[in-house]
Design a protein that fits this description.
284 residues; methyltransferase activity; transferase; methyltransferase; six-stranded mixed beta sheet; four-stranded antiparallel beta sheet; Methyltransferase domain protein
Length: 284
């Protein structure tokens, strides 16, 4: 069994997982990059009768969190001043006031790669970001009219995508060699140093949609392969950047996005009504 990330020989670590209540699956780990892959994953056609699993009751709550974190992250991404974390923690109110005066909006093009129904793109545009949608496997419901129109994107987002990929290396090549973004911001839950037991909830055998899993070593391998710096904000939210970032400062702000988002959002002008006028003009 070859690793789908680095092509090293992977070994079986778990067996006896029951997918969709009727398919047997095994989990293999790569000794080199630590990628975990499910085999044989021959149930995917059944798993994707709908793109979003019926069990996914948290999709809106997660997107509300994502849009806050993305807004804070992109607004401070070029912030040059290094501020000690203790100062930030003790003087949060002052820092929020400072943010209002010093930070500028991120006005470069954004692509949501694997954007699902388009909910995140719509929410980002409602804040004021020039975000576009791309997904070859899901119908665009919420971001119609704002599909991908070019290959020039400074930032690519990919939320809740990497764990679904049947051929991850192909898609990673598409992102990093095709689009060549300066920033890649994405989510996937890392599994830690040890292979989790088969009851780990993120295996999600009841839906059958999660078939690839990563830890910090896997992400570092991918970042190094394509020439990026890598930081994790937490175990589920990650950033690849072409330039070295002040990780402690960025992590401080993004982890407190509920607190800082209202201030950061004021830097932007919502595209909700502008987009509405564009869509009206497109149909008359």
């Amino acid at each position: 069994m070859k690793c789908k990330i680095c092509n090293a020989e992977a070994s079986r670590k778990l067996k006896g997982l029951r997918y969709l209540g009727r398919f047997d699956g095994e989990v293999y780990q790569c000794p080199n990059c630590k990628y975990l892959q499910v085999f044989p994953a021959d149930w995917l056609e059944d798993a994707y009768t709908e793109s979003i699993a019926i069990t996914d009751t948290g999709i809106v709550a997660r997107n509300l969190l994502f849009v806050k974190r993305i807004t804070v992250l992109l607004t401070i991404i070029d912030f040059k001043l290094r501020i000690p974390s203790l100062f930030l923690l003790l003087f949060k109110s002052f820092v929020r006031y400072f943010c209002k005066k010093k930070f500028r909006k991120y006005n470069l093009n954004i692509l949501d790669f694997g954007g699902g129904y388009g909910l995140l793109v719509r929410m980002l545009r409602d804040v004021g970001f020039n975000a576009e949608w791309r997904d070859l496997f899901t119908k665009n419901l919420f971001a119609r009219g704002f599909e991908s129109k070019s290959k020039n994107y400074d930032c690519i987002l990919s939320f809740e995508v990497l764990e679904h990929l049947e051929n991850p290396l192909f898609e990673l090549d598409n992102i990093f060699l095709g689009f060549r973004p300066n920033l890649f911001v994405f989510s996937t839950l890392l599994y830690g140093e040890e292979v989790p037991d088969k009851n780990w909830w993120y295996f999600s055998p009841e839906t059958g949609q999660h078939i690839g899993f990563y830890n910090e070593r896997t992400l570092r391998f991918i970042a190094d392969k394509y020439g990026y710096f890598y930081i994790s904000i937490d175990s589920g939210f990650h950033v690849f950047s072409k330039k070295k970032l002040h990780s402690d400062t960025i992590r401080f702000f993004v982890l407190r996005s509920d607190y800082f988002f209202p201030t950061f959002a004021k830097v932007y002008r919502s595209l909700t009504l502008t987009d509405n006028k564009k869509m009206i003009n497109s149909i008359i």
